[in-house]
Amino acid sequence: MAYRYGQRRGGQQAAGVGPLNLKVQPGEFLCVVGPSGSGKSTLLSLLAGFLSPQQGQILLGDRAIRGPDPRLTLVQQEAALFPWLTVTGNVAFGLDSQRLRGPERKTRIENALRLVGLGDYATRRVHELSGGQRQRVSIARALAVQPGLLLLDEPFSALDVQTRTALADELLGIWWAQKVTVVFVTHQLEEALHLGQRVVALKDGQVALDAPARDLTVGALRATLD
Ligand SMILES: Nc1ncnc2c1ncn2[C@@H]1O[C@H](COP(=O)(O)OP(=O)(O)OP(=O)(O)O)[C@@H](O)[C@H]1O
């Protein structure tokens, strides 16, 4: 598939991604790395259904993604939460599109908050939380809908190193426990190698490298992207 933002004059290729062909296995943890402008966020917007490929298609299972899709959720760099709502209110908001009511709704929220270590914060207002706690709420909101595909776009980049490392390890624990398929975008090569089972490196919108993380080093990734 491919997506290009408009056309450039003078025969130069317009910015965007592709053509590329990627298959993510169910339950896989895939990290996408690449320098600024390489197309990471564009790829994630395509996977999230915010953009439609101009060429080819994106399938989730055997059904195409044609727009915002309840089978997947996206967590972005800055937690997009409602500050005036409680932690529970924010997580519940993600469930509204599923029209989930009653005890199952309550259980989903409680489980999601427990998974991110915020079981005791249910009634707190979001504006009282730290940046790391807010990002935990975003992840809980994404997990509560029990997505088939969890997309994360540099979710920890606004956080200090310690919080970032702690949250990365929590995410690994959640992935392990929930068997959710994860596509995680980062420009930090160390983070990609720590988290991913597989790493895809993008350069100018193309796949420059696609390999199991265990076969890679930061040096090898850097050399590919230079
Ligand atoms: N809305 C847009 N209109 C036109 N060009 C765009 C648009 N959004 C992104 N681009 C261009 O597409 C290319 C890929 O951008 P993208 O944001 O996907 O890169 P990225 O790898 O996520 O970068 P960063 O790490 O800086 O977030 C860049 O050349 C960018 O300038």
TrEMBL record:
**Sorted alphabetically, which PANTHER family does this protein's record hold?**
BICARBONATE TRANSPORT ATP-BINDING PROTEIN CMPC (PTHR42781:SF8), SPERMIDINE/PUTRESCINE IMPORT ATP-BINDING PROTEIN POTA (PTHR42781)
Protein name per Swiss-Prot or TrEMBL: ABC transporter, ATPase, aliphatic sulfonate
> Which keywords does UniProt give here?
ATP-binding, Nucleotide-binding, Transport
Molecular function (GO) terms listed?
A: ATP binding; ATP hydrolysis activity
- Describe the location of the ABC transporter domain by residue ranges: 1-221
Q: Would the keyword Ribonucleoprotein turn up in this protein's UniProt record?
A: no
Keyword field contains rRNA-binding: no
Gene3D superfamilies reported in the protein's UniProt record: P-loop containing nucleotide triphosphate hydrolases (3.40.50.300)
Q: Spell out the SMART domains in the cross-references.
A: AAA (SM00382)
Source organism superkingdom: Bacteria
